[in-house]
């Protein structure tokens, strides 16, 4: 049976790059995990074994490290754009580059006098603790003409200990869930948002500020929404971002509902009442999984449905 080569891409995945910038004796860290995927005229590499059009994955790795040194890392997005442009514009057979980056944040360790800026001890200028919060993400795709930048985050764990209800749902012969008028709402946010910056002619967003602002609106909407379902909270989070950040046209969330169930303490003669502060069992599985995209009216949805392997 004849066969044909379908979609293909290649490159070096998970290049771990740590760049230290020295500002006098104050240091700054950028800690990235960069994955390169290239595609183009690569049929012969697969079909005949000719490597004439193949830029080695080893070279793509070296380019990541050389660019970090030569040009620095202003933001994950800027770094990814720079790499994507390089691969597509410098190698004729390479028609498309996709750069995915995870960024791990570090913060300065405070001195014993509680101030990390006006210090006698100089270790704070170069001593860091890795932030336990979210991982920042970006994916840059470039075909020599158009850009697509989808940034995001994962593992941002949030909880509201009240202001969440869930009732009025369908009840069939299998429904046992009790209606909740005051419950815990907790989730581990995975999200991707797409920028409307698509060509060199447009003004590029300020990537660092944009990330901080999107995250701020996301968290504030989570905190400030009186929730009748995680679905409703998700929509509030997304629309708050679309309404406040003109550079973002689309945002998708994958929100596991981290269920907290009231423990039955009746057998021990104890009343476990939410109004007085209750004891919960934090279940890890199964979990409800609430996923949706929120879009600016009139734009096309481009973020893939399944965020897990992005
Ligand atoms: O916020 C929720 N949405 C649901 O769809 C759902 N289903 C469920 O059992 N609990 C919840 N909570």
From TrEMBL:
Known catalytic reactions: urate + O2 + H2O = 5-hydroxyisourate + H2O2
InterPro entries: Uricase
Listed EC numbers: 1.7.3.3
Pfam family, one: Uricase
Keyword Oxidoreductase: yes
Pathway note: Purine metabolism; urate degradation; (S)-allantoin from urate: step 1/3
Swiss-Prot/TrEMBL keywords: Oxidoreductase, Purine metabolism
Keyword Membrane: no
Family: Belongs to the uricase family.
Function recorded in the entry: Catalyzes the oxidation of uric acid to 5-hydroxyisourate, which is further processed to form (S)-allantoin.
Protein name, entry field: Uricase
Lineage: Bacteria, Bacillati, Actinomycetota, Actinomycetes, Kitasatosporales
